[in-house]
Amino acid sequence: MTEWTPETVIAASVAGEAPQTTPEAFSALEPEVIALWRLNGGIEWAILLSVTFVIITVGSIMLSLGLWFWALLAAWVLALVVAVVQTIWYPPLAYRYSAYRITDRVIEVRHGVWFRESRLIPLSRIQHIDLRQGLFERSYGLATLVFHTAGMHESSTPLPGLAAGKAAALRDQLIGQLHHRPLPASVTPPDAPETTNGDATL
């Protein structure tokens, strides 16, 4: 019995086979993406909290806020607690509810903790595929595939948290599949020119 992975599904689709995919065929992201999300979230929160702390401190000195300073400082401490909890607790949950699968017709990407979203990308609508690697992604050996589509509400869909080598292989195989797809029924190839005595008649 053939084990259908994203790579074998793509290869089978090119060969004209139709694998039987099931909801259990979803693939998880790489676990290293949890540390990456924690790092990105920590940096964002650190910048935000640093700026607000400076504003609160300078404002209290210039405007003599008095008791308002302590109220704002208490709110800042509360925001700090929220930042720490979210940075540590949220990425594992986001990882748990993030998955993808590739069938012979669509790519399905699932994500979301509070509001879960499942996005279907028909292979026939994909125009091109980008492979992106940010500075921190490279340090974790990860990459993001971005699918650009035509005729959809959102023209691009990212798929983060892939191993860099696997992302490159999936991109190349999907591009190969797109090059093998047939022309739409409404598009017919031009007629070959008639030839007379070896010369083409235009």
TrEMBL record:
PANTHER family named among the record's database cross-references: UPF0699 TRANSMEMBRANE PROTEIN YDBS, UPF0699 TRANSMEMBRANE PROTEIN YDBT
UniProt entry tagged with the keyword GTP-binding: no
Keywords for this protein: Membrane, Transmembrane, Transmembrane helix
InterPro entries attached to this UniProt entry: YdbS-like_PH
Residue intervals of the YdbS-like PH domain: 95-174
Keyword field contains Transmembrane helix: yes
TM stretches of this protein: 45-63, 69-91
Pfam families, A to Z: bPH_2
Domain of life: Bacteria
Annotated spans, Disordered: 181-202
Species of origin: Chloracidobacterium thermophilum (strain B)
Protein name stated in the entry: Uncharacterized conserved protein
